[in-house]
Design brief:
- There is one protein chain.
- The chain is α/β, with parallel strands linked by helices and 179 residues long.
- The chain has 3 helices and 8 strands, in the order βαβαββαββββ.
- A 5-stranded parallel β-sheet has the order 3-2-4-5-6, sandwiched between helices. It has a 3-stranded antiparallel β-sheet with strand order 1-8-7, covered by helices on one side.
- Strand 4, helix 3 and strand 5 form a beta-alpha-beta unit.
- Helix 1 packs across helix 2.
- The model has no long low-confidence stretch (mean pLDDT 93).
- It binds inosinic acid and magnesium ion.
- The site of magnesium ion has 6 residues, from strand 4.
Length: 179
């Protein structure tokens, strides 16, 4: 496959320029809602591209955010979650008294975000907000307050902009649907 060719079976859904515009607007919204100190807690691996762009959008809106990373169990190679969320990396230190913005790629069943939210509260965060690039409201099993949402999408399997299928497609600059 040539580098510029679309990988087979990926249908574009959200183009790169729409992502950039929306992430900039999210930065402004978050800056207005969380003025002052913010510690982003980005979820690996899927949230890393969104987190990098959101951090710079926050900077453009006047927020000098700190960033920490957290790694949880994921889908593995398939398209369905196992239903169990496990912390598989180190827990960030120094969250006590901090205002935390959890940053993830997709709010799906809500299990991951609800688990991380409790983890942040247990670590002593004084405020916990959640930003998800994509929301699949029809898939929610565990209710969780997602304060900042980029785009709501149908129940489709998406890739790109950090989001993978079997560890592939993360490099795509746009969000696409895998059949
Ligand atoms: P939840 O715990 O069910 O909400 O799962 C959320 C996580 O599942 C997301 O952070 C993604 O890593 C993964 N996920 C959910 N939907 C998709 C998808 O369409 N493509 C790739 N990963 C997905
Ligand atoms: Mg994820």
């Amino acid at each position: 496959m040539s580098p510029s060719a679309l990988p087979g079976a990926v249908t574009p859904l959200i183009p790169a320029d729409a992502l950039a515009e929306r992430v900039a607007a999210m930065g402004r919204d978050i800056a207005a809602a969380m003025p002052g100190d913010v510690t982003m807690v980005a979820l690996l691996k899927g949230g890393f591209v969104f987190a990098a762009d959101l951090m710079r959008a926050l900077g453009a809106a006047g927020v000098d955010a700190r960033v920490e990373f957290i790694r949880l169990s994921s889908y593995g190679g398939g398209k369905e979650s196992s239903g169990t969320v496990v912390l598989v990396g180190p827990m960030p230190e120094g969250l006590k008294g901090r205002r935390v913005l959890i940053v993830d790629d997709i709010a799906d069943s809500g299990r991951t975000l609800s688990y991380v939210r409790q983890l942040m509260l247990d670590a002593g965060a004084v405020e916990v907000r959640i930003a998800a690039l994509l929301d699949k409201p029809s898939r929610r099993v565990i209710p969780v307050p997602v304060d900042f949402i980029g785009f709501s999408v149908e129940d489709v399997f998406v890739v790109g902009y950090g989001i993978d299928y079997a560890e592939g497609y993360r490099y795509l600059p746009f969000i696409g649907v895998v059949e």
